[in-house]
Amino acid sequence: MAAAAWVFVMVLAIIVITCSNASIHDLRPRPGFGGHLVDCLSWRLAVETNNLRNWTLVPQSCENYVGNYMLGKQYSRDCKAVANAALEYAGSLNLTGDAKDIWVFDIDETTLSNLPYYARADVQFGALPYNNTKFNEWVAEGTAPAIPSIRYLYKKLLSLGIKNVFLSGTNARFKEVRVANLHKAGYHSWEKLILKGEEDKGLSAVAYKSKRRTELVKQGYKIVGNIGDQWSDLLGDNAGSRTFKVPDPMYYIG
Q1: CATH of the domain at 181
Q2: SS3 (DSSP) at 244
Q3: Residue 96's pLDDT is what?
Q4: Are residues 147 and 113 in contact, defined by beta-carbon separation less than 8 angstroms?
């Protein structure tokens, strides 16, 4: 009886230790969170499916939820699931072999992650108003890390003979720092890097990206795939033969 009790205590201790170690990025309600897990999970689903549009801030009650999601394992798993689906699709293509098959990649929260910036106390995972000056200062540092699963997709597409094009809403004045950052993060050998110039001023994200993709098509390219974290990356003219959405519950660009 004593031995059985001892075994029970040991098992219980192991469970407690395991749970304690695993709760760093736990998505369950936590003190200060208010217990709104179901509401925030539903909110994130609405965001990812584009049922909720034109929102400006992450709900204050969901800040912890979004932070735990982005820093935890689920976000990485979701990105990997998107990359795997894209790879399966790419492997099924009958490519022309004329060097005109391209895949369009967004940059922010697609190929490069700004999570170190959004995790800051003065940003709080999108729960505080966007500050253009602060974000541009972060971009200018050129230290954004890669999203590993998307970088893997990028490299596999190259091995299949598909050329990659970066199409970003980043201001063209950051071209040099963006090139350096992409190289540092492990991205090389792209066909084009398209950033937003003065001629694009005033255009919505959908209009700007549609315009630039249409230019690519007019140059003879065939957009076989398109991947981005915003629906505005994937909607509009010449969006591509197939689009893939990377999760991003931190901000919305229309």
Answers
A1: 3.40.50.1000
A2: strand
A3: 84
A4: yes
**Token representation of residue 248:** 């991003």
Contacts of 10 (CB under 8 A, 6+ apart): none
Expressed as residue numbers, the domain containing 44 is 38-245
Are 88 and 137 contacting, i.e. CB atoms less than 8 angstroms apart?
no
Contact 238, 111 (CB under 8 A): no
Residue 157 is assigned to a structural domain of this protein: yes
- The closest of 230, 223, 224, 167 to 200, measured between CA atoms, is 167
Q: How many domains does the chain have?
A: 1
**Residue 64 contacts residue 40 (beta carbons within 8 Å):** no
User: Could you tell me the two tokens for 48?
Assistant: 């990812």
- Give the pTM: 0.85
Write the CB contacts of 46 (distance below 8 Å, at least 6 apart in sequence): 52
Give Dmax over CA atoms of the chain in angstroms. Answer: 81
Query: pLDDT tens, 66-123?
Result: 999 999 999 999 999 999 999 999 999 999 889 999 999 999 999 999 999 999 999 9
31 lies in some domain: no
For residue 30, pLDDT over 60 is answered with no
Count of Cβ atoms closer than 10 Å to residue 247 Cβ: 19
Residues 83 and 150 sit within 8 Å (Cβ to Cβ): yes
